[in-house]
Amino acid sequence: MPLDTSAYSLALLRVDGRRWNELRRVHAQIRTQAAADGSSYLEMGHTKVMCVVTGPSEPGARRGGTTGGAGGGGNNAAEVSVTVVVAGFSSVDRKRRGRGDKRNLELQSTISNALAASLHTHLYPHSTISISLHVLSQDGSLLAALINAATLACVDAGIPMTDYVVACTAGSTSTYAANDEDADPLLDLNHQEEQELPSLTVATLGATDRVAVLVCESRVQASRLEGMLAVGVDGCKQVREILDRVVRDKGRKMVSEGTVERGIGLESMDLD
Amino acid sequence: MPREAEPSLNEKQFVLQALKEDVRLDGRDLDQYRPLELTFGDQHGVAEVTLGKTKVLVKTSAEVTVPYPDRPLDGIFTIATELSPMTAPSFEVNRPTETEVLLARLLEKTVRRSGALDTESLCLVAGQKVWSVRVDVHVLSHDGNLTDAACFAVVASLRHFRKPDTSMEGGVLTVYTPAEREPVPLSWLHSPFCISWSFYGDMGEIAVLDATWVEEQVRVGSCTISLNRHGEICQIAKLGGTPVEAVALLQCTSVALAKAKELSGLLDTKLAEDAKRRDKGGLLAELSAENDR
Amino acid sequence: MASTQHVLLSPAELAYIHASLSLSPPIRPDGRTPTQFRPLVAETDILPGTNGSARICFADGTEAIVGVKAEVERTPGADAVYDPDHAYDTNAGETALEAGQSDWVELSVEIPGVRDDDSGVAFLSAVLSEALLADGAFSARLRINRRFHWKLYLDILLISPPLSYPLPLLSLTTHLALLSTRLPRLKSEGDEDPFFDDDWAAAPHLFPRHDTTTTSRPPITLLVMAAGRNIVFDPSREELAVADVALAVSVVATTAGTGKKGGGRSLRLLSVRTIDPPSRLTPPGVANEANSAYGAKAAGLVAGQGQRQPEARAAEAERVEGVWRAPRGGSKAGVLAALVGKVLEEGGVVDEVLEALEGVDLG
Question: Which is a Gene Ontology cellular component entry for this protein (chain C) (predicted)?
């Protein structure tokens, strides 16, 4: 189904009524599951993912289907192993993707490598941090949602990290064929837009301009990259604000409920 | 599961320190490729690429098959990559390592998804008969930067390849042997090339092109950009690793574009040379009535 | 992931748990009564993209999500029966096609960190699909007309790491998801190509909720175990580690008559599977008398080791109070019968569980 982009130039509104620099609704929760060391649930529009982190723990027998190995120097740092399970019911048409699917393996290794660079894995030598991600519903920006959920779960698990690794997608309103210069960059693409327009996924380290992940899978003019990247990085900053708020809200709630004690560090920390 | 031998601490330190002082072990500039050699085989569609000590052999073949039921108008185009234990002991047969999966995905995204080959032109009879083009990538020797070498070899092989000519007359499909009709090249739309950067330093501030195996083992991140000479990005893959400044990535892209144009030029000359070599005797020699006696 | 996961309990702890479970009435580590389930949090219709979905969280943190998706599929071989001119001549071959076929339901179980061809996963999905398909009544519901049927895909995800044996959790979640499953309302008639009402609000439930006549519910599979003379429902991991025998019992409930709760419900047994309890792999304890670190006997043992060996072996087979011995051999038929009987008891645990799940559904 071709996407009707003609309306965009008239009202500057996208198919779902957003403006070019608007994120979809991001809803996130942390500590969703009592049994895990860290867990999170994240919605970006209709893309819904759950994440469960176990560890850092003693590495068990090497389990099937996981991709890991990231984390630098052999046994001197924790290994970050990631499993992504895409539920059969997540997309409109039921499609089963096996564990050995290359796309899935690429996702796993990307998330693993991105987080390993931000987590202080050197504090946990000879151990494994296993992250398992479940995709419940997908509507574009899958990699971005997975990275955000994994970051939140790692925060919940209390694994020290340099900063949040936050991700979002950016696109451009015209396809590669049309060489028009007034193409607008777009932020946070849904599935329909992702199918039709060139897009890329950016993950940055916190609110800096440093890019941890940059994945572009469609043909696009090199001149358009700068605009898309700028919008993407800016979007990541917005996502970081949202995730940070989620973490702080949860922390404040836990303190007020008495689940955790108000620590010394918290006194000085700005909880509002 | 066999593991790759890691360079020793001293070796790592040495390589990293040298890179910080803008020196590479083989004396190249940071953005300089190792000498790239391309040779074509006697058969059409066989290309061997040597990049320093990295060696990749690619063979393209085609056969007539039934199309996938969900895409009756498209031919089938597959790229198969195999890293055998011959390349390095850490690779096992039938057990794809992460390197192999990522290489296969990169080639897939660069060549197949970017629409370099017009798969619709491979259709012979809608829903019944199509050409299935298969590209086999064999890595003979691995000394870093597999992606660039493999991608260059795949594109070269596909552009060099000739498939048998066919004709449709009254619902009868005829496939001609090379003796009957000169084989025809594939319908090729654009030639993408992979350019891989490796990053070093705490902030990933040192960017290096065409890393060798040792350099690849000590890098903190990498980014592969695929471009064609029209300045179109076909794919970017920076799959994790140490975060790098966005501006630096843009800089990398523009250097990569220049490199891609260089590679494109090199491939064009090589193809032209090969065509000339083959054409020397060519059809005329075969048709001449004169005997060698 | 079999039921035989690592249990980090010492022989002494195992013996203690087994002893307290064998008391009458049994004392369970978490203070539940023998028939009491762990508290759980459940919700349904969580995923708008599916025909039905449910999520259940046990209090110990294990969590599962089930999504049901349905597709229309042509019934193979049925076109021969269909003749447009006699479309409503419903006699030929009707009985044969009335029932459903078991390949109309596809069930997959995903457990994080476990390969999908793992024997434990295969066993779980076999138990769950066996319960669904055992009596053919379920797949018969998927029939649209003689030429078409619904193909139901059940994807069962365990979200948390498998802390306790996940079978009851997965079964209860599947039950809830199926209860919430709705299929579009059929607008076509007879054996023509089906077309459906696109108003989702009008879509009927696969298992109608307020039916005046007989209502049936999806099957549930419960885990029961025996320790000593006691029968314990919904064992936790520690309890399963000392089980003499563990059974997965699948039952389906049919309510006859008008919505009289519990009263008219009759239970039918669908399948029984024995679960290999991890207790068989636990290390045995050593009685003090036999332990050289304790008794005076140790010296004597060393002296006459050759002669004493057969005797020592005999002692090993004997049960000593407070010393853990892993159960060996099969279990008595009487015990198995008692376990199954306890599940099928009227007004028993199954009734309680079903009522609780119905409560979720309405809420």
Answer: nuclear exosome (RNase complex)
CATH number of the domain enclosing C185: 3.30.230.70
| Contacts A83 to C, Cβ<8 Å | 112-113
Residue of chain B nearest A118, judged by CA positions? B242
Cβ pair A222:B242 closer than 8 A:
no
At A58, the pLDDT band (50, 70, 90 cuts) reads confident
3-state DSSP assignment of residue A134: strand
Cross-chain residue pair A89–C62, CB shorter than 8 Å: no
Alpha carbons within 13 angstroms on the beta-carbon side of residue C14 total 24
Q: Does B101 touch chain A (CB under 8 A)?
A: yes
The residue of chain A with its CA nearest to that of C163 is A35
CA distance C90 to C191: 10
Strand, coil or helix: B117: strand
pLDDT over 70 at C99, yes or no? no
pLDDT band at C257 (very low <50, low <70, confident <90, very high): low
Class of domain A13-257: alpha beta
Of B76-80, C272-276, C306-310, C345-349, the least confident? C306-310
Which stretches within chain A are classed as H helix? 6-11, 102-118, 142-157, 191-196, 222-257, 264-268
Cis check for the bond before B96: say yes or no (omega within 30 of 0). no
Beta-strand runs (E) in C103-244? 105-110, 148-158, 215-216, 220-227, 230-233
Range of the domain at C339: 11-285+324-358
Helix (H) or strand (E) holding C68: strand C63-74
The answer to whether the CB atoms of C67 and A36 lie below 8 A apart is no
Q: What is the pLDDT of residues C306-358, one digit of tens each?
A: 444 544 444 455 667 778 888 777 778 888 888 888 888 877 788 888 888 87
